[in-house]
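Subject: Re: docking follow-up (ribulose-5-phosphate)

Dear J.,

Thanks for your patience while I sorted out the input files. As discussed at Tuesday's group meeting, I've set up the holo structure prediction with ribulose-5-phosphate included as the bound ligand rather than trying to dock it afterwards. The sequence and the ligand SMILES I used are pasted below, so you can double-check that they match what you have on your end before we go further.
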Amino acid sequence: MTGQPLDPAALFKQQAAIQAATLVKDGMAVGLGTGSTATFVVAELGRRIREEGLRICAIPTSDATEAQAREEGIPLTSFGEHPDLDIAIDGADEIEPGTLNLVKGRGGALLREKIVAAAAKQLVIVADASKYVEHLGMLCPVPVEVVPFGWESAATRLARLGAHVAPRKHRDGSFYLTDEKNLIMDCVFGPIEDPDTLSQSIYGIVGVIEHGLFLHMATQTITAGPEGIKILEPARKQATQGAL
Ligand SMILES: O=C(CO)[C@H](O)[C@H](O)COP(=O)(O)O
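The structure tokens for the complex came back this morning:
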């Protein structure tokens, strides 16, 4: 990507993205995330394809990422060809450092992102260091994707779980629609003490397609900030590695 000089937050995102892109090797099937940080990953993979002859194929998590991947000349594939992906690299809105549990979906791509994440052997999260939180829910609402039919009923049930619920809208007041043509309910729960139980409760609401709690999925986070690049893996994994 060329043009304007990057502001510090964007520079950190780019640093994390470039570091994560080094994990992508010849022959890999790669999940491409969505959002401003994932954009840098897609750009770096495009550069490596052009300049280093990297050979990969990829599945994008949104129409926007698909358009960028095509511009960058990244060959695209399908789950028919690759039901399992070697790696997915994506951004996040919140990261709990101890567990690497995440909130994702501020960009509205959470459904495809979770499908891609679930299919990937490694889910690497890239972000600037501002995304760390003590508890999920502290910085951002948890987005919940619901089918348009009966959304008010699903919204009421989400509120009964303790959330302040707002259907996501455009500035002109029209409903935001995901790439899958569903609605997003932005749910402010405040700090979430037990995300696993909350996840199950949300899945129990008829009409809910997916939510933005990505639990026990990330295998690594790569963040960049004023103190440099930080790489984390889930605590249990680190302990196992240390014991070997
Ligand atoms: O989940 C996402 C989109 O649905 C993004 O990955 C998340 O919102 C982070 O975005 P950014 O890198 O722009 O901060």
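A couple of observations from a first look. The first strand starts at residue 29 and ends at 32. The radius of gyration is 18 Å.

Let me know if you'd like me to rerun anything.

Best regards,
T.
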